[in-house]
Amino acid sequence: MNAYNRNTLIVGVAVALLIGGIVSYFASGDPDGLEKTQETLGADKPVHRSVEPPPSLFEGYSLKWLGEGFWSNAVAGVVGILLVLGVLLLVARILKRRPSQQDSEKV
Amino acid sequence: MHIASGFLSPPVWGTMAAVSGAALAASLAAAGRQLDDRKVPLMGVMGAFVFAAQMVNFPILSGFLSGVPIGTSGHLGGGFLLGILLGPSLGIVAMASVLVIQALVFQDGGIEALGANIFVMGVLPCLLGGAVRRLWLKPSWLSYTVTFTGAAAGVLAGATLVILLLKWSATLPQTVSLLQALVLMDSIHLLIGLVEGAITVGVVRFVLEARREAVLGVALLSPSVEVRA
């Protein structure tokens, strides 16, 4: 990998980790716009839910066994960021055709 | 703006799953041609950035109104941003990946609602962002204005669609009129949209300055195209 791409990855991942791992700890805990709207209108009952959603390890962006604190949020953020990065790099690797200078960029 | 599990009726989420599924298939088919060497890491880190930014809820309203708490927050959607920086196809692929991971691993957004959520936060804003990306070949006051307004409009359009989906799913109570619901949802999302617009302009500018070749691609930067643009 050349320096250009290596730096894209290093700086990009560092910024994402800073935001998702640290800054997000200070995020507002208030309901988001949709949740607040549903709450206000009385449309907050999952009337179409037939099966409970499967349990997930990081429900609500925290790790149950780490409680609700800084580290729980940080671990959830780091795991999510690395998952997204890994999935996208894998998808790109599968999709990418042989490089060609003639290929025109579609906008 | 993630729709949680249990709020959409099967016909509604089924339709949205079909629409987003088709859009994602078309995007994946187009992605191969667009992924040059520099775009692969850019797509990876932009997806990671959007995931991280979506964890940061900023306060929109706080305090009490006639004794009722009105505290409300919002977070970046990021679709318009990715539409500009990656183009609509790669943007849709990245947004879909973020939303699938959020639903499966973090229980953020219902799994059956994934089609709807991918359309509202992915397909729709990515197409809008993609439509204006050429303005950034030569940044001017127009690029900034259109990007700010467009990103905010994308949030409003998504918010409007979410209410319509809830209405068609008969999730809104009978006592609530569609107009009431739209006014409430869109007023809140106008505020969220302004923040979306500001963040989008800032990040586009930063990434374009740091990684212009990766964003615009070799073809777009070649002299023949520069002249046309």
> How widely separated are the two ends of chain B?
36 Å
Could you spell the SSE succession of chain A in H and E letters?
A: HHH
Which term fits the overall shape of chain A?
extended
Instruction: Using the 3D structure, state the CATH architecture of chain B.
Output: Orthogonal Bundle
Number of helical segments of chain A?
3
Q: What structural class do the secondary elements of chain A suggest?
A: mainly alpha
Strand-residue fraction of chain A? under 5%
Distance between the termini of chain A: 26 Å
Q: How many strands appear in the DSSP assignment of chain A?
A: 0
**SS elements, strand count of chain B:** 4
Q: What is the makeup of the main sheet of chain A?
A: none
- Unreliable sequence segments of chain B: 223-229
> How would a crystallographer describe the biggest sheet of chain B?
2 strands, antiparallel
Low-confidence runs of chain A? none
